[in-house]
C-alpha cells in the first residue's frame, strides 16, 4: 500500500511547497485548494491521510474535518493552524482530528506526523480486510500470511482438502496445527462436524468409550448408550492432536478402525461404518519415534500416507507484521482497548526474534501489548541497556499520555483532568512528544 496524502491548502505557494516536501519524503500527494475539491476524492477505502489548513475560503478546515468523519471516522486528519489559533486546535481535536501542527512548521516534522497517521490508517484498513476474510470463513480461523511458506500450505489445502484423504500434520508447538486441520475440514467437509481430540489429555481407561462409544451396561455407570467421537463425526473430520502421546496398546485399536473403517461400541457387537476423515498432528518426528519403538510403525505408515510440515514462525518471519496486526485487532476488541503504538524499529526487532513458542507465543505477546504489560525490549536488551533514565521516563510518559487521550476520546481538557495537570502543561507535553489524536 503506497503512502498517500490529500493536502488541502488555499494559498498556492504554500500548497506547492508543502506538496513538494511530502513528495520528497516518499509520499504520493494530491494537493487541492478547497473543501469542495477534497471531499470528492474521499471514500471509506481512502488509504491515506488528509492534511488541511484550518482556514479555507468558504467552508473551513473544521467543516472538512466533519465531512471526513462522516465518510469514515478512522481517516486520519492533520489540521494545520496559524500561530495563536489554540481554540481552533482544541476544537479540531474534539471533532476527531488525528493531530494539529502550528505554522510555521518544519517539513521534517510534518512528514513525521503524517507517517505516524498513515501507519495508523494502514493498520485500520488491514484489520478491516482481516475481519472480512474471517467473516467469509464462517467462523473458521484464517490461515494468515503471504510468505512463500504459507502460500504452499494454501496450495496443499486447495489440493488435498476436497479429497477427504487422511492427513498427518507435523509441526512444533504453537505453529497452528489445529487451525490448519480446520482449514482442511472446511475445504472438504465443512457442513459436517469437526471433532478435536487431545490424545495427551484422554485417560487410557476412557479411550474406547470416548472414541468409539459404548452400549448401556457395558461397564459400571454406563446407564445408557453413548455415541463416540468417530461416530459423532460421521461425514466430518476427527482431529487427533498430539497423537505421539497415545499409548501403544491404544494405537493398535485405533489402527484397526482406520484400516477397516469400522468400529464397535464398547459392549456391543454391531460393526458400524466409519465415514470421517482423520487428521492427526504431532510435534515430534514420528518416523524417528516409530523407528525407536515409541510409536507403532504400522500406524505411522497408515496416517502418514499424506503428510504436511508446518513451518516455525522464524521460518516465515515476513508474516509477523500481518499476524501481529490481526492478533492486536482481536485483543483490542476483546479487552476494549485502543490500538497500541509501535514504530518501524519495534516491528523490525520483533520480526528478528526467534519466537520459540511460534504463532501462539506471538498471539500472547499481542494481548500483552494491548494491555500495556508487554516488555517490548525484554528479548532485545541491547537497545534497552543504552537508554538513560530520562529517556526511559520519556517513553513511559508518552505511553501514559496516549492512554489518557484514548480514555477521554481525544478530549484534551478531560485528559488533563484525568492526569491531574493543567491543560497548558498537557498541550506542551503533547507537542514535545509529537502526539495528537489517538
Question: Characteristics of this structure?
Answer:
about 450 residues, alpha/beta, Rossmann fold, 3 domains, 5-stranded parallel beta sheet, 19 helices, 14 strands, elongated
Gyration radius, in Å: 29 Å
Provide the CATH superfamily of the largest domain.
Answer: P-loop containing nucleotide triphosphate hydrolases
CA-CA gap between termini? 22 Å
From the 3D coordinates, which CATH architecture of the largest domain would you assign? 3-Layer(aba) Sandwich
Shape: elongated
What name is given to the CATH topology of the largest domain?
Answer: Rossmann fold
CATH class of the largest domain: Alpha Beta
Structural class: alpha/beta
DSSP strand (E) fraction?
Answer: 5-15%
Poorly predicted sequence stretches spanning 5 or more consecutive residues:
378-386
Proportion of residues in helical segments? 40-55%
Q: What is the averaged pLDDT score?
A: 85
Give the secondary structure arrangement, pairings included.
Blueprint: E1 4-8, H1 12-24, E2 28-32, H2 35-39, E3 49-53, H3 61-71, E4 77-81, H4 86-94, E5 99-102, H5 107-136, H6 148-160, E6 167-170, H7 177-188, E7 194-198, H8 207-212, E8 213-214, E9 226-227, H9 229-232, E10 237-241, H10 248-260, E11 262-263, E12 272-273, E13 277-282, H11 286-291, H12 297-303, E14 307-309, H13 320-335, H14 344-352, H15 358-371, H16 381-386, H17 389-407, H18 412-419, H19 423-432
Parallel strand pairs: 1-2, 1-3, 3-4, 4-5, 6-13, 6-14, 7-10, 10-13
Antiparallel strand pairs: 8-9, 11-12
Helix pairs in contact: 5-13, 6-7, 13-15, 17-18, 18-19
Amino acid at each position: 500500500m503506497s503512502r498517500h496524502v490529500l493536502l488541502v491548502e488555499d494559498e498556492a505557494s504554500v500548497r506547492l511547497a508543502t506538496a513538494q516536501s511530502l513528495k520528497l519524503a516518499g509520499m504520493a500527494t494530491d494537493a487541492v485548494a478547497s473543501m469542495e475539491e477534497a471531499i470528492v476524492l474521499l471514500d471509506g477505502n481512502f488509504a491515506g491521510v488528509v492534511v488541511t489548513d484550518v482556514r479555507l475560503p468558504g467552508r473551513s478546515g473544521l467543516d472538512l474535518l466533519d465531512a471526513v468523519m462522516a465518510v469514515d471516522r478512522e481517516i486520519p486528519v492533520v489540521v494545520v493552524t496559524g500561530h495563536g489559533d489554540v481554540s481552533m486546535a482544541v476544537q479540531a481535536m474534539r471533532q476527531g482530528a488525528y493531530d494539529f501542527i502550528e505554522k510555521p512548521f518544519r517539513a521534517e516534522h510534518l512528514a513525521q506526523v503524517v507517517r505516524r497517521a498513515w501507519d495508523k490508517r494502514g493498520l485500520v484498513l488491514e484489520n478491516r480486510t482481516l475481519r472480512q476474510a474471517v467473516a467469509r470463513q464462517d467462523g473458521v480461523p484464517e490461515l494468515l500470511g503471504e510468505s512463500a511458506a504459507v502460500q504452499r500450505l494454501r496450495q496443499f489445502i486447495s489440493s488435498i482438502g476436497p479429497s477427504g484423504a487422511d492427513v498427518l500434520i507435523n509441526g512444533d508447538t504453537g505453529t497452528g496445527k489445529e487451525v490448519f486441520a480446520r482449514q482442511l475440514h472446511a475445504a472438504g467437509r465443512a457442513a459436517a462436524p469437526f471433532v478435536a481430540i487431545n490424545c495427551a489429555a484422554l485417560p487410557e481407561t476412557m479411550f474406547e468409550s470416548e472414541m468409539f462409544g459404548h452400549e448401556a451396561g457395558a461397564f459400571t455407570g454406563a446407564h445408557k448408550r453413548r455415541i463416540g467421537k468417530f461416530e459423532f463425526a460421521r461425514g466430518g473430520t476427527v482431529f487427533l492432536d498430539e497423537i505421539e502421546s497415545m499409548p501403544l496398546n491404544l494405537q493398535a485399536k485405533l489402527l484397526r478402525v482406520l484400516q477397516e473403517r469400522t468400529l464397535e461400541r464398547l459392549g456391543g457387537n454391531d460393526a458400524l461404518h466409519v465415514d470421517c476423515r482423520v487428521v492427526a498432528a504431532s510435534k515430534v518426528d514420528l518416523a524417528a519415534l516409530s523407528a525407536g519403538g515409541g510409536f507403532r510403525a504400522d500406524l505411522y505408515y497408515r496416517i502418514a500416507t499424506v503428510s504436511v510440515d508446518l513451518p516455525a514462525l522464524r521460518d516465515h518471519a515476513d508474516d509477523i507484521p500481518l499476524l501481529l496486526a490481526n492478533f492486536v485487532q482481536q485483543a483490542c476488541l476483546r479487552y476494549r482497548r485502543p490500538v497500541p503504538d509501535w514504530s518501524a524499529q519495534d516491528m523490525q526487532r520483533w520480526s528478528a526474534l526467534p519466537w520459540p513458542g511460534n504463532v501462539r507465543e506471538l498471539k500472547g505477546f499481542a494481548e500483552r501489548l494491548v494491555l500495556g504489560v508487554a516488555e517490548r525490549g525484554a528479548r532485545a536488551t541491547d537497545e534497552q541497556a543504552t537508554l538513560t533514565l530520562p529517556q526511559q521516563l520519556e517513553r513511559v510518559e508518552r505511553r501514559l499520555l496516549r492512554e489518557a487521550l484514548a480514555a477521554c476520546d481525544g478530549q484534551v481538557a478531560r485528559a488533563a483532568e484525568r492526569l491531574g495537570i493543567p491543560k497548558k502543561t498537557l498541550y506542551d507535553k503533547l507537542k514535545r512528544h509529537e502526539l495528537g489524536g489517538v
